[in-house]
Structure formats: structure tokens, C-alpha cells
């Protein structure tokens, strides 16, 4: 990210594996863009730097908010971004993230998600609106004194998977599987059933554990901003009505072969694939 803020094209290109691929390489790219190979990535980055300069003070592009290790070989970076068009002078601000899959010290796969927050020439106005857009996190989950236990469920309905779009950080605006924090005195299975009902409107039977992993996100000063230990279960719906509820911005029932447009994190995609294998085995 430092190389990007310096517009150091050579250093950026050198960070990618020769046969790397990137989905939404830069904030201004189309959501469905995919670029294959280091050479094509180099061309796209050069075109971006020719078109835009950094819109923050000092000419930088990104203000990194959190950095996380969310799985082996995976790095997740949440950021604010601002670009200024070199010809028109128009500034556009974004909030979003990059997920990097690393192999042998080089980026093998990059997935980006960016949401336009405000378009303005006023630096102070843009900063205020971008900051306001990111201050939706529940304070109790930020900078915790100890790790927070989270539970999630891959809900299977007639061979399809229930996805939710998160309303709050971490991963605000991202499609994922439903879940939330375990409450004091609550068993894991009870917590899963409660969260599934609160977020999706569905009553579920809680099955076997699919995966256990951690999600640790650091702030710009490398302090732990979030620390979750996440336990995901296979669930089957037995009643209720599918609807977006609680902390959820939207909900969808998706066939396994149609997951790609929802731009899940590699970890969420892997958990769903693993859950489907368990479901088929039963």
C-alpha cells in the first residue's frame, strides 16, 4: 500500500506473481473486472496512474484503516481512498478493502471491493463524509480486552445457500454467511440458532461444525481493532420466512454455481464449499 501511495509502478508490479490475477485491481475499476497475469496488471496500473493522482493531503491514494490476517496466506486491508482526475480535477472518495492471497511472498490473487462515498472538490467535506460512513461499528466490538467468540451458519435450503450483506464493520457492505457474537451464558448451538433467526428470519437445525478460524484486524498504529474467534456450523432451515433483519442490509438465496457475483472473501467461499460437501454426505 505504501508503494501504491508513492505511485511506485515498478515496486507494485514486482509484488505480483507472474501468473497472478486481480479482481477490481483499483477502486475505480468495474466490479466485474478481472485481470490475468503480471503483464496485464502492470498495464492496468500504468493506465490508472496516468489517469489519476492521489486525492489525500500529500498526494496519497489510500488511508489504511485496518490490516488483518484472516487465514493462512491471506491478508485483508480495509481502507479509505480518494482519487483526483488529472484532467478534470474531479475527486472521488471510496471506502473498501483489498484481500490478498500470498504465495512465496508474492501476490497470487487480489480481490477488491470499493464503494463510492462522495464526489467533491472540497477536501474537508469529503473527509467528513467518508469518516461518517465508516463510523457504524458497534463500540463494544472495537479494541476488545479479549477475543470475541463469533458463530456463523451456512444455511442450506433445497441445495441453495443463504447469504447476507453485512451492514456494519468488519466487512461492511460485503456478502457473507450470517453470524454474530456469542452471548454470555449461551451455548454455541443456541447462539447459532439465535443469530440465524435474527439475521435471516429462518428457524434452523444446527448441524456439525464446518470450520474454526480467527479474524484479527489491526488499525493504522498496529493495535488490535478487532479479534474474533469464529465457529461456523452447517444449518438446515426448518421454518420461518427469509428476510433481511437485525444488522443485515440484504439477504439472498443462491445456488452454489452462482456465488461468483457476490464476491465473497476466499475464506467465506471455502467455508461454504466445505459445508456443501458435508450436506451432500448426509
Write a compact overview of the structure shown.
By secondary structure, the chain is α+β, with helices and mostly antiparallel strands. The protein contains six helices and 14 strands. Strands 1, 2, 3, 4, 5, 6, 7, 8, 9, 10, 11, 12, 13 and 14 form a 14-stranded mixed sheet that branches.
Description:
Strand 6 and strand 7 (106-119) form a beta hairpin. The chain has 282 residues and is an alpha+beta fold. The radius of gyration is 20 Å and the shape is elongated. Strands 1, 2, 3, 4, 5, 6, 7, 8, 9, 10, 11, 12, 13 and 14 form a 14-stranded mixed β-sheet that branches. 23% of the residues lie in helices and 45% in strands. The chain has helices at 2-5, 9-14, 38-51, 123-134, 188-200, 266-281, and strands spanning 16-23, 34-36, 52-54, 62-71, 74-85, 91-103, 106-119, 148-157, 160-166, 175-176, 179-181, 202-218, 224-240, 248-254. The protein folds into two domains: 2-134, Nuclear Transport Factor 2, Chain: A, CATH 3.10.450; 139-281, Alpha-Beta Complex (Nucleoside Triphosphate Pyrophosphohydrolase), CATH 3.90.79.
Element order: H for helix, E for strand? HHEEHEEEEEHEEEEHEEEH
How many structural domains can be distinguished in the coordinates? 2
Count the DSSP helices: 6
CATH topology of the largest domain: Nucleoside Triphosphate Pyrophosphohydrolase
Gyration radius, in Å? 20 Å
- Helical amount: 10-25%
Major beta sheet summary: 14 strands, mixed
Gross morphology: elongated
Q: Label the structural class.
A: alpha+beta
- Overall pLDDT level: 85
Amino acid at each position: 500500500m505504501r508503494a501504491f501511495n508513492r505511485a511506485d509502478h515498478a515496486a507494485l508490479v514486482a509484488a505480483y506473481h507472474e501468473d497472478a490475477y486481480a479482481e477490481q485491481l483499483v477502486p475505480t475499476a468495474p466490479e466485474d473486472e478481472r485481470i490475468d497475469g503480471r503483464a496485464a496488471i502492470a498495464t492496468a496500473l500504468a493506465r490508472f496512474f496516468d489517469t489519476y493522482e492521489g486525492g489525500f493531503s500529500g498526494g496519497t491514494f489510500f488511508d489504511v484503516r485496518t490490516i488483518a490476517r484472516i487465514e493462512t496466506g491471506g491478508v485483508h486491508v480495509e481502507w479509505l481512498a480518494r482519487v483526483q482526475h488529472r484532467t478534470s480535477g474531479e475527486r472521488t472518495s471510496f471506502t473498501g478493502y483489498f484481500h490478498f492471497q500470498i504465495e512465496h511472498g508474492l501476490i497470487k490473487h487480489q480481490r477488491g471491493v470499493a464503494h463510492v462515498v462522495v464526489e467533491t472538490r472540497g477536501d474537508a467535506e469529503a473527509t467528513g463524509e467518508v469518516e461518517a460512513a465508516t463510523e457504524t461499528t458497534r463500540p463494544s466490538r472495537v479494541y476488545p480486552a479479549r477475543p470475541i467468540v463469533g458463530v456463523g451458519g451456512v444455511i442450506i435450503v433445497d441445495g441453495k445457500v443463504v447469504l447476507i450483506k453485512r451492514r456494519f464493520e468488519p466487512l461492511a457492505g460485503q456478502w457473507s454467511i450470517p453470524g454474530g457474537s456469542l452471548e454470555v451464558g449461551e451455548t454455541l448451538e443456541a447462539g447459532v440458532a439465535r443469530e440465524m433467526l435474527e439475521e435471516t428470519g429462518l428457524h434452523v437445525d444446527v448441524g456439525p461444525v464446518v470450520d474454526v478460524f480467527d479474524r484479527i484486524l489491526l488499525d493504522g498504529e498496529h493495535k488490535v481493532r478487532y479479534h474474533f474467534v469464529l465457529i461456523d456450523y452447517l444449518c438446515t432451515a426448518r421454518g420461518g420466512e427469509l428476510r433481511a433483519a437485525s444488522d443485515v442490509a440484504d439477504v439472498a438465496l443462491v445456488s452454489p454455481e452462482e456465488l461468483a457475483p457476490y464476491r465473497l472473501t476466499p475464506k467465506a467461499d471455502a467455508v461454504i464449499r466445505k459445508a456443501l460437501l458435508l450436506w451432500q454426505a448426509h
